[in-house]
Amino acid sequence: xxxxxxxxxxxxxxxxxxxxxxxxxxxxxxxxxxxxxxxxxxxxxxxxxxxxxxxxxxxxxxxxxxxxxxxxxxxxxxxxxxxxxxxxxxxxxxxxxxxxxxxxxxxxxxxxxxxxxxxxxxxxxxxxxxxxxxxxxxxxxxxxxxxxxxxxxxxxxxxxxxxxxxxxxxxxxxxxxxxxxxxxxxxxxxxxxxxxxxxxxxxxxxxxxxxxxxxxxxxxxxxxxxxxxxxxxxxxxxxxxxxxxxxxxxxxxxxxxxxxxxxxxxxxxxxxxxxxxxxxxxxxxxxxxxxxxxxxxxxxxxxxxxxxxxxxxxxxxxxxxxxxxxxxxxxxxxxxxxxxxxxxxxxxxxx
Length: 351
Known about the structure:
Elements: H1 26-112, E1 116-124, E2 127-134, E3 143-147, E4 151-152, E5 162-168, E6 171-176, E7 180-185, E8 190-196, E9 202-207, E10 213-217, E11 222-226, E12 233-238, E13 246-250, E14 257-262, E15 267-272, E16 278-283, E17 288-296, E18 301-307, E19 314-317, E20 324-328
Parallel strand pairs: 4-8
Antiparallel strand pairs: 1-2, 2-3, 5-6, 6-7, 7-8, 9-10, 10-11, 11-12, 13-14, 14-15, 15-16, 17-18, 18-19, 19-20
């Protein structure tokens, strides 16, 4: 609505010239007075009429404005009300729900603990296939080839056997022939040496979330701390007993444990995640030849491979009972002895 202006009425002329007429007759005075009165009345009437007309004009204008405004307002309000209801409900609900749910799901499942593990599959003939293996429910054992044949560079033997894998700072490392730390680039499909461990048969390497790297040397029966920049290692603790083929893996920040399988006695060992001191072992119900071992924190499961006569299959190991369960048969082209699970998104590997 438009605000109306406040208009003051013009002042009426009430003074008469009769009082100014001196010496005239009574009738002249009367006539003059009457004329003056008439004039005043006329002026007043004209002024009143003008005021009334002006007021009427304003009233009419205001009425038209009000009518127009009301009509416009009603029409607009009806339209706006409809638009506002539709837009507000649809936009707010859809955008908020979709964005929040999608972001949360992507962050939890895609960026932190993607449901897969990696392995360098060695089917023979000097071929090294970088393979992604799903551990997602309903798709366990489904494989995706990341690199058809890794290029072995930097003086590493072209027939290198990669006995263990681990992620460290979202990058992939391997133990080459048990004596050299190597870097595996899934973007270029190239493997390059970093440096020797200083120990032989370091056939199990793993890393914790703080990027500390550990290895198990079965030649010296020790667990070592490995420098990811150079490969140089130093002893953390002795392994209990005489170890054969082995795999080593770290649990998670909550438990902070190291798990190892000794193929010489087919037992699952547990170690302190800081100093690698032994915490005990349990017997397993499977006979291992070579060993690939990896704990997947997103699945809360310990995966293993290398069971005698079933070296191409993927298994899980129960941490409490030691029961070994077949998860997927004939996953690999050759006998598996290395597994690695990511801590987060890895460049060039679909999540």
